[in-house]
Amino acid sequence: MGFCFTHRASIVAVILCARFAAAPALAADKDAINAPPTAQDWQALAKLPDWSGVWTPVISDQVAQEKTNRPPWKPQIAKQIQHMYAEEEAGRPFPIIDHCFPTGMPSWMLITHNAFEILFTPGRVTILGEGDGNRLRRIYTDGRPHPADPDPSFHGHSIGHWENDALVIDTVALLPQAYLAVSEAVGVPNNGDMHVVEHLHLQGPDTLADDLEITANKVLSKPWLTTRKYYRQRAQKFDIAEGVCEQGSFTDAVDKNGNAIFAPIKFDNGVPVGSDSK
Amino acid sequence: MNRASMNCAALALILAAALGAAPSRAHHSFAMFEPTKTLTLKGTVKAFQWTNPHVILWVLAQPEGAAAAQEWSLETTSPGVLTRAGWTRQSLKAGDRVSLVISPLRDGSHGGSLNSVTLLDTGQTLVPSFGKEQPGLK
Fold this sequence. Notes:
A: 3 domains; nine-stranded mixed beta sheet; two-stranded antiparallel sheet; B: alpha+beta; five-stranded mixed β-barrel
């Protein structure tokens, strides 16, 4: 009897240990760890929808939505937006994605002209983009909550969970300077407290749709609902290219020692106007 | 301040000046180019800069009426997008004789957005493109 009790207790202990090992790491717990994935964790990935390949944005739809689904800007923000459109029309586009900062969230999903890919690993979905050097989203799907006081960043802190075949992503802790943009020349910093909820899902065999609900109370009068679409490419020539944005501010040169270096290009109003190094 | 530290300070000033002359203005909208106006230029490739976020073609061209050859910078989309449109970093090289169709800068300075480039020695024409908006492109 004593043996049985001990044996049962051992089994319960093993089950409990296994349960806790598989339990989501609670970010509020300062001792939370990223547990090593098990074989079952890797096998579970096979049940997720197939989002492999490279996704290219439907740019014409981005442009169309500038007219058909405008963000509900607050009146004072709408004046800034109107001015930006006028400046763009006059050939003086506002440099929203200048200085090679990441386009950030949610503008990356809204205005990009470049492709991205999506990787599944246990407890995590990673979106890798092309263009701005650090175009990368880490979406934790291990059940953790947002940290109590996350550091603000261009892409924010994202947690996700699956609802059928849709990945629901909740993003907070975005830098107030991160733009809410509708094009490369029109948009404003969110100014703080922006919250983005996305439903990312297939809308056909090779079309990915991102339904976004953007709450940005400093610049929007109400949450903005919009959808962006991306087409799947499988040809290897569509593979993602490295995108180090700052490299475009330099050109190839050789120094006095014969070493290959980058030499700065001269710019005037955002346009390259020459380099003595060529 | 000893001589070495003076040299360091001077170098720092030179570097600061150089960096100041080259602000990171790499990624931008193309609204500064005049989309409804085209200009044809013939010239020689000085460099073909295969970089993100924008590929830059540097060409020495002498437009009609110009007294001497001028350096023109022609911007287009990114290496990833151009690769999908059939380009490679070897598509153009220094010394290639080219004819260009561009949308020039609205302010008249020597730059523009590249609409197409024809290699005069082979007749091959390359056109930057985002590609068709459909899945499964070959």
